Amino acid sequence: MTQLLLLIVVLLLLGHVPPGRSEFKRCWKGQGACRTYCTRQESYMHLCPDGSLCCLSYAFKPPLATKPEYD
């Protein structure tokens, strides 16, 4: 009986624990992180599905597309 009660308590407690890595949501092909604010070493790329900013480090930022020159 005590084992059953202990099992019920453990299952109830596990129901209130957030899933792992919930604060480190990834974006931009796994290179960026979804956050409320970007740090100084990061730039904003787009919005994540939950409405937060997708912050990408300047090292991973894609280069700007240049216009082709016409002769």
UniProtKB/TrEMBL annotation:
This is Beta-defensin. It comes from the Eukaryota. Coiled coil: none annotated. The gene is DEFB124. Keywords: Antibiotic, Antimicrobial, Defensin, Disulfide bond, Secreted, Signal. PANTHER family: BETA-DEFENSIN 124. Transmembrane segments: none annotated. It comes from Propithecus coquereli (Coquerel's sifaka). The lineage of its organism: Eukaryota, Metazoa, Chordata, Craniata, Vertebrata. Belongs to the beta-defensin family. Residues 1-22 form the signal peptide. Residues 26-55 form the Beta-defensin domain. Its main location: secreted. Has antibacterial activity. GO terms for biological process: canonical NF-kappaB signal transduction; cellular response to peptidoglycan; defense response to bacterium; innate immune response; positive regulation of chemokine (C-C motif) ligand 5 production; positive regulation of monocyte chemotaxis. InterPro entries: Beta_defensin_dom (IPR025933). It holds the Pfam family Defensin_beta_2.
